[in-house]
Amino acid sequence: MPVSSDSIDVANRILLYFILATYSYLLFKTLFENYNKQVTVVTEALETTIEQVVASFIVAIEAKDQYTFGHSERVSLYAVEMAKTLREYEDDNKLKTLRLSGLMHDVGKINIPESILTKPDKLTPEEYELIKTHTVVGARMVEKITGLGPLKNGVLYHHERWDGRGYPAELQGEEIPLDARILAIADAFDAMTSSRAYRDALSFHEAFNRLKEARGTQFDPKLIDCLESVRFQWLQIYNESQFSLDDLEKLTDFL
């Protein structure tokens, strides 16, 4: 049976539509892949810039007070290890925000005179009030820097207390953002295990026990209950930091 010209025309149209559809799909796929590559490049560049900005701030903070050498990094490490035990931080982006918040939690101290930060004696009430402003100043700083806005809660509220007696807003219980509650514990622990101009450091185990004693008063009781599950990881961070501090002391003596 001969094939009509109409049948050939229909077949050609179907073939043409198929070719156009295939071409459109391949074109869209190529454009989409290129777009994703560009987005990835821009995102990676932004993340690198953010990390560099954070690193610069840490250097500036620690240059003002040798006793805080490595403090921000350790607080960040302690906080992340605790957060890994919580389902709220299964999202890597939330974990990253907490990590950067730990690194930047004391950024507002750039505004505090070095003479107060390194004062070997007890602070006067006026000096202590000035120290307390570092949370608000730091929050304003990160809020104004592109990419650092999400760090605000951790920076602003890491000195709040579970019982409502902290600062700057006297928040209580779960009014305090979770990032800040975790950072409060990590910050206090590293402060206790680090030497200061006015006191010697506590041992790892003594500081660990003091955190437990402050359960439900200074710190979130549920988070304190997580401590035992991160004891080994925290001890590793602590031990590694002692080597770093020894190296710093040798360098300081040499200079």
UniProtKB/TrEMBL annotation:
Protein name per its UniProtKB record: HD-GYP domain-containing protein
Q: Which residues form the HD-GYP domain?
A: 46-243
Write the record's keywords in alphabetical order, separated by commas.
Answer: Membrane, Transmembrane, Transmembrane helix
Regions that span the bilayer:
14-32
Per UniProt, residues of the HD domain are 68-192
Keyword Disulfide bond appears in the UniProt entry? no
Superkingdom of the source species: Bacteria
